[in-house]
Amino acid sequence: LVFDQKVMLNLSEIDRPLYTLEIHYSIYDKTGAGIIIEFTNKGRTVYENTVGVCTNSPPYDFHMINLRNYVELNNTAHGPLQLGGDVFQPIGQGSGLLGTPGDLTPPSRLVRAATLTHFADPVKTSDEAVNLAIHILNTVDIPHGVADKDYTNWIVAKDLTHKALYYRTYNDLTVRVIYLDKVQPQGKMLKLPLSTPVGGFKDTTDELETVNGGHTEL
């Protein structure tokens, strides 16, 4: 962690040397305006969050420069490509996003999330906004084992208008919500175990219906 002084983290249990973890705070108000506060070895820096996305190291100004590598991305399909006497048609929709980085590094996750956030259809309600946020967060979700010891333990979506905190955990994809204006801590610290499953997989076998023609479809 880096604040006014460097605090080293002991990560010997995962066979890594001591290192400094830079901290990024993403802060929004009800109008949708946001800032990013960073604490690095250069001190504290505040940025206006113009793209609506924040990931981990390196610092935010690097991410903004890195986005210039992807200026060709768009949400429309490319036209056919002619090479010599052959014409190559695009394979399905989505060719406008060819070149979007698919790895799990913070810079690539920021490009992916920023692009999807920009090109997604505008939402009209809070529920639609939360639904879209979770869809986008799913595209940068890290499963166990694919990025060494790192993985996505939980995701969070916040509805500032209704003071609602939506979240899901790694072991249970059920989206849960806490309405903060209903919380009455009475001077005490409250906690909620993230490991407690509440939904899991729902068996819908008995909900299968016969369609015209007598075929059963899944």
How many helical stretches?
3
Give the overall pLDDT as a whole number.
85
Strand arrangement within the widest β-sheet reads 1-2-3
Gross geometry: globular
Low-confidence stretches: 1-14
The arrangement of helices and strands along the chain is EEEHEEHHEEE
Share in helix: 10-25%
N-end to C-end Cα span:
49 Å
Count of DSSP strands: 8
How big a fraction of the residues is strand?
15-25%
Estimated radius of gyration: 22 Å
* Main beta sheet: 3 strands, antiparallel
Q: What class do helices, strands and sheet pairing give?
A: alpha+beta
Summarize the structure.
By secondary structure, this protein is an alpha+beta fold.
Layout of SSEs?
Elements: E1 23-28, E2 34-40, E3 43-48, H1 60-66, E4 81-83, E5 86-88, H2 106-119, H3 126-138, E6 154-159, E7 164-169, E8 172-179
Antiparallel strand pairs: 1-2, 2-3, 4-5, 6-7, 7-8
